[in-house]
Automatic annotation (TrEMBL):
It comes from the Bacteria. InterPro entries: Amidohydro-rel, Metal-dep_hydrolase_composite, Metal_Hydrolase, Metallo-dep_Hydrolase. GO terms for molecular function: hydrolase activity, acting on carbon-nitrogen (but not peptide) bonds. Pfam families: Amidohydro_1. This is Amidohydrolase. Residues 40-324 form the Amidohydrolase-related domain. Gene3D superfamilies: Metal-dependent hydrolases, Urease, subunit C, domain 1.
Amino acid sequence: MRVTGTLLPSGERTELWLLGDRVTFTRPRGSVDTAATDLFLTPGLVDVHTHPGHDDAGVFTDGRFVEECAQHVAAGTTALRVPGHTAPVPAALRADPTLPRLVTAGRLLAHTGLATGHPMHTPTDDLVAAALAEATANDGWCKIVADWEHDRPALPSALVRAVVDAVHAHGFRVAAHCQTAAGTRVAVECGVDSIEHGWYLTDDLIERLAARGGAFVPTATAFLPMVDDVRTKPEGPRKDYFLGGIAGLPRAAAVAHEAGVAVLAGTDSAPFGNVVSEVEFLLAAGLSPTVAIGAASWTARDYLGLPGLVEGGLADLVGYDVDPRLEPGVLRHPRLVVLRGRVTAPQRG
Ligand SMILES: [Zn+2]
């Protein structure tokens, strides 16, 4: 299958071919179907923080997973990192070529000391063993809860460090939920790879995260819709904490990108297939269109180890009628979505 257009982020005019699940820039022998011409092409989009398949009680069902994954694909999101799911994703779904590529982290692990009670969380007494087991059984990632209530202590640093050391010793990576100043600090200082939410991420922590190639996933899409409601709540430390945490995200995203942190797009919320919302947040935070789009595409793919539109790369792409760097609104209206070398129906509307 042949596709021509302008490749992002380079801006080069290109002609490429999809051979099965691979990309090549060398015309293959034999007959070729042209899927599209003259589009603006990005590697398939990525949502690096999404939990498809769960109801409000945290119950995972295959049917719901398939449905919510289909919403991602329709929007051009061809790869997902799933930082926490309450049941293993069945092998048959992982192998389904119509579903996005998955990078799963297994159960979302909450040390019993935090007593979160959240339906998505799995309590554990032995966070180190559980984290290593999930990273091993999944795609080289585990996910831990570093803090929960704003007025309760975060995990002790010795415990977070023990998790990180054990997981890194096997070449795997750790993502951590952190939404308090103490939790974000302990996660960054102890070497967590991917900082999820990252409220109260300070400049000194950003420097440390950048120095070791860490990632920051603000998930502002999950929080911004809550702000109006929170403003109506009684005054007090909880309200201040909540509004302060959200208010700090745009600046933290901008400073983190400048410092060299991989700032990545994750939604952590319904509707599924809405990663463009996080691109819009990053644009509003002052990141350039190329950087903001990259956070949901080539930068995220690099970080997860999913090659994009390079020779031998994976055959996932999205095509747009106009340059999304100039008109980011077009990101919501892909003309062409290709997943694993197959054209899927583009989203309309
Ligand atoms: Zn989440």
